[in-house]
Amino acid sequence: MYGDGRQRRDFTYIDDAIAGTIAAGTAHLPNSLINVGAGGTTSLNDVVDQARRIGVRGAVGGSRLRRRRADGGQTAHDRGPEGAGRASQDGGQ
Fold first, then answer.
1. Measured distance CA(57)–CA(59) in Å, rounded
2. What pTM value is reported for the model?
3. Around Cβ 69, how many Cβ atoms within 10 Å?
4. CB 60 within 8 A of CB 44
């Protein structure tokens, strides 16, 4: 693991991601960008601890970002080209 494991990410259960993607595809919102994500964060330490509790063993990796979550706010289209691809980051607060 890189760093101390306190970095946080927005993890989305695959069934929820699929349901959100299907809903977005059938929403009939022409020329719209829709973000699919849980909107909350979990520390990498918590994920590793849970994986170990269910028997997963092995090396883990991370990054230096302290927190990252799905951006449920404006779409990149709403923000303009300079906002495209930007994820929410808040320095671990």
1. 7
2. 0.49
3. 19
4. yes
What's the angle, vertex CA 92, arms to CA 89 and CA 45, rounded to 5? 110
CA distance linking residue 12 with residue 47, whole number of Å: 12
Q: Are 10 and 69 in contact (CB under 8 A)?
A: yes
Residue labelled with tokens 């919102």: 29
Q: How far apart are CA 70 and CA 88, in angstroms?
A: 7
Token pair 């449920």: residue: 72
How far is it, in rounded angstroms, from Cα 89 to Cα 8?
A: 10
Q: Say which DSSP state 9 is in.
A: E
Q: How far apart are CA 91 and CA 34, in angstroms?
A: 25
pLDDT in tens, 36-89: 888 889 998 999 899 889 988 776 655 555 566 666 665 555 555 444 444 444
What gap in Å lies between CA 13 and CA 70, rounded to an integer? 13
Classify the phi-psi angles of 7: left when phi > 0, otherwise alpha if psi is within -120 to 50, otherwise beta: beta
